[in-house]
Amino acid sequence: MDETRKKEPLIRVEKRKERPAKQVRLLRLASVLLAIVAGGLFILCIGYNPFSVYATIVSGAFRSSMAFQATIKLMVPLLIPALGLTLAFKMRFWNIGAEGQIIMGAVFATFFALFCWDFPHWLLMICMFLAGMLGGALWGIIPAFFKAKFGTNETLFTLMLNYIALYLISFLRDGPWQDPNSSGFPKIARFGENAQLDKLFGVHVGWLIGLVLVVIVYIYLKYTKQGYEISVVGESRATAQYAGMNYKKIVLRTMAFSGAICGIAGMVQASGSDLTLTTSVAGGVGFTAIIVAWLAQLNPVGILVVSLLFSVLEKGSTVMQSSYGLSAYSADVLQGIILFFVLGCEFFVRYRFVTRKKGGKA
Amino acid sequence: MRYQNRKKREVTQLALDKVENAIELRGITKTFGSVVANDHIDLDVRRGEILALLGENGSGKTTLMNMISGIYHPDEGSIHVNGREVVINSPMDAKKLGIGMIHQHFKLVDVFSAMDNVVIGAEGKRIKPRELKEKILELTKKFGLEVDPEKKIYNMSVSEKQTVEILKVLYRNADILILDEPTAVLTPQETQKLFAILRRMKEQGSAIIIITHKLNEVMEISDRVTILRKGKSIDTVNTAETNEKQLTELMVGRPVTLEIDRPKCENVHTRLKVVDLSVKKADGTMALKDLSFEIKAGEILGVAGIAGSGQKELCEAIAGLVPVETGAVLHNKENIIGKTPKQINNLGISLGFVPEDRLGMGLVASMGMVDNMLLKSYDKAKGIFVDRKPAKKLAEELVERLEIMTPNVETPVRLLSGGNVQKVLLGREIESEPSVLITAYPVRGLDINSSYTIYDLLNEQKKKGVAVMFIGEDLDVLLEISDRIMVLCHGEVTGIVDAAVTTKEELGLMMTGSKREGVKADG
Amino acid sequence: MNFFTNFFVAAVLAGTPLLFGILGEIINEKSGHLNLGVEGMMSIGACAGFMMGYKTDNLLLALIAAFAAGMLGALIYAVLTVTFMADQNVTGLTLTIFGIGLSNFFGDFVREKSGATSLKLPSGILDSLGKVEIPLLSDIPVLGKLFFNYNIFVYLGIVAAILCGIYLHRTKAGLNIRAVGENPAAADAAGLPVTRLKYINLMLGGGICGIGGAYCSMIICNGVWISNCVNGLGWIAVALVIFATWNPNKAIFAALVFGAFSVLKYYVPKSVIRIPDSIFDMVPFFMTILVLIITSIRSSKENSQPQSCGVNYFREER
């Protein structure tokens, strides 16, 4: 019995009064700073000067108008899917299929680019835009249907659809849509000028679409009935039904919108940036967008800020690759570290560590 | 190993024979955020006695006991077990000291059998299932328990689950037993059985603490009573030298008549008529079988029954949330089966359903009062946008009228106290001027003052001519507030009685009475 | 007959990395944590195993490195979800992105340092990665080829599956961790060290995933370092846990079936049906979806996800 005469543990966890919003914001900011420090330590460990590396990243993203344009070009495919995902995440629907939804948007849009290239430019653009939405929405509705009907796990479902979409592109590339002028090399033809997205200030108008979507999503979530429904469903399905909401309809509708927005990103990427359809049209942004949405606490304005930061990180890391020979994958690592820290800091909003009191009893 | 432990304990017990207190608490203080749950509490329990810990909901009884069982850690104060000061950091430490606690919400693994539940966390090597089963059967014989060691928990009734919890404690040779509101979920007959077991344990020298707020049980089972009020220890008295009236005053802090008003029913006429209603659960079994009853305008119909007898499904069926197998629900002679929840709500059938966690269904925990006011009416405004202005006004009115304590109407309701949450929920339902008001467990977890506010609100509705259905668990309350009581057992009505001329025991029999169909099958 | 044996052998080889992933995730989920970071832990393990093999030319050290790396990945997850009570879904996803990124980053890093255009495992370790012939057994006609003619990982995987099965269902420790995963509050009240058990089992699962990763980088890629070598297998493994109904022994079957789907394209004679390869590539993913749907339609109480999965535990929660 003597072993129970020990002291109280050195550190234990206790619930605290919830911190006010202002403190929470500071806390998150601090955690991002800590993450940057941790990233610096990582860089130090592999034998580089963190200050010069970080400086290279920032200057790499902003050093010239061309660099900045490239940064914006990287931002667009992060921003738009993150906005789409926000709708799903608000509903606590774990849509990690942005990747697939982006691809399907691009595939549907590409159909018009390849086969209706002789449409008037404005009509072609509208068709491609709507087709992109349709493709993404389709890929969003499928898992939503099974989730609503049978409670099928949407996380894995949406994920598997990513791979199916990916292989759909290789199927199209190797067969039906293969470029007839590529002399057998499996690739899809470059879009004609008519099917390319217009430019504004040197970057395709995707950035403008993104900004408009920020406003739309913000208003949609905050002020509309449908946005209210999403919040309630996200909190509890039972409550939503109790309130007389049609759960299935809301899930299907929201996922259609979520997928459609991601689909827009696919269309923008294919016709504005890649100017063709390749298997790397999404290239992992669907996953990074999840981090973006989460870091921004599902706030559309926050998403704008975070996606800009992330694109700086990505653009900068490509510069780092060319000047230091450090792999551009470092951007993924840093993004991961940042989110790890922010996830950890959420703890301090509701809990605190209590250390053993000095000289206390026991 | 276990045998050695027991031997060791016997030795210590002999050495400490002069110390008669099994547990002594001195100056225990515990705060949660800004709430002081326990404020310098002293408490003694002797071996071979049953101590009742009496107090209202929220007076800090459970918190105090959780510190003995290692769930919480006190901010200040000391705990002595068998005369020695100890630090209890975890349930593991408590277990080693021979302390066992039976929590109000059972801590059992649903998919495990009774014996697996008993053996987890117990000392020693893995025991072969057959030996284990024999050991358990031996224990059950010794204390007169009834339980099948191989039955899975999810197939068990509430009282069977409680038996498993007791078995767990006995298996570990715990001689200090804490029970948190053990009778809340039992019928009067099951309560008697439990008390018999406790008396037997007491005779064998165990120290037992029973947390309760029911005075008649205190009088019946305990040797001494310690009364807590608002986190402070008020007094400790010998049960033989006190009475219910004195205990009430100590518990509430002022003389109160614990009688609930029952205004006379006026203008009574049938509002809601349920005919042969049958509902299936998700797993295909029947939740409600051929239920027929009516709720009259201007009355309160109480619904009694063991937890899980079909109360939830009844609420959900009337509100249109679950599909109905057969039968009809007539609201002013109009069948509402097949209507959507929204249509039913628009007819004025208002469901104030409060599941165990209170925030589960009627309210959105992370939203403020304003957005919660909108829950059923957000769709009424024209256009695609939500109109928050009337909701804000309503929220502010409710805060004033029902004295809801909240920093402001935008504060997430999960940060409010239980009583205030309940007022928000009921307030909203009442504001919609319902024709039928269904409330389930509206006073669960509330202190006496808040409970009476809720009773008054319900009576007020009754006087206005609303048909009120009150699903409750405390039979005393049900008997006092209801005009008629319907008793459910395994989804069937076993009786609809006049509350004024019925006793608790009669209700208890009806709650378990429907044995003619055979108890719930095992598998 | 020969055709069938070849197909079976190929299916086993393709299923083995999945098996490790499934086992790791089963242990994670049994301790109450839906860890979506399997892909990440496998990636980290793939990189660590490969690099250790590359530097030391020692298979055992490579395996230890892979296991340890997987454990470290799981440690990050455990700290965040167990101690800091962060959302399990998001943490797992982040671990995946971080793990893939870290693995690719280090691959590039080491290659740059070495100055070579590609990294190739030394010949010594490649030899030990070859088929392990078991005396007598391997010589049995047909059966010998079917069951006793594999690389070391395959045997390791089978043994691991059997051990996991015994651990979870036949030992006291297994009973304890299942109790934790089903109802941590009950386990805690019964006096089990919930936090410690969660850490141990999460890391154990992570280590097993790490070995699966090493298979991807060392066997699938034929000893040459390739970025993204895990390529979605970790994700399929997470899904297959459902197919295996959280049972390590059934995991062997699940891995085999899905291994078969993924090599199907090489074994359907082109003369019979001509289906493009990319359609075949979709099959495992498509089948996974089917499994998800079917299991969600018929749900059973006992062969299902541990109840507390996805929800973090805090003792003082009121």
TrEMBL record, chain A:
The keyword Membrane applies. It is a multi-pass membrane protein. Pfam families: BPD_transp_2. InterPro entries: ABC_transp_permease (IPR001851). It comes from the Bacteria. The keyword Transcription does not apply. Keywords: Cell membrane, Membrane, Transmembrane, Transmembrane helix. It is found in: Cell membrane. This is ABC transporter permease. The chain crosses the membrane at residues 26-50, 70-89, 96-115, 121-142, 154-172, 201-221, 250-269, 333-353.
Automatic annotation (TrEMBL), chain B:
Keywords: ATP-binding, Nucleotide-binding. SUPFAM superfamilies: P-loop containing nucleoside triphosphate hydrolases. Signal peptide: none annotated. Residues 23-255, 272-515 form the ABC transporter domain. GO terms for molecular function: ATP binding. PANTHER family: CARBOHYDRATE TRANSPORT ATP-BINDING PROTEIN MG119-RELATED, GUANOSINE IMPORT ATP-BINDING PROTEIN NUPO. This is ABC transporter ATP-binding protein. It comes from Blautia parvula.
UniProtKB/TrEMBL annotation, chain C:
Its main location: membrane. Keywords: Cell membrane, Membrane, Transmembrane, Transmembrane helix. The chain crosses the membrane at residues 59-80, 92-110, 147-168, 225-245, 251-268, 280-297. InterPro entries: ABC_transp_permease. CDD domains: TM_PBP1_transp_TpRbsC_like. It is found in: Cell membrane. It holds the Pfam family BPD_transp_2. It is a multi-pass membrane protein. This is ABC transporter permease. It comes from Blautia parvula. The lineage of its organism: Bacteria, Bacillati, Bacillota, Clostridia, Lachnospirales.
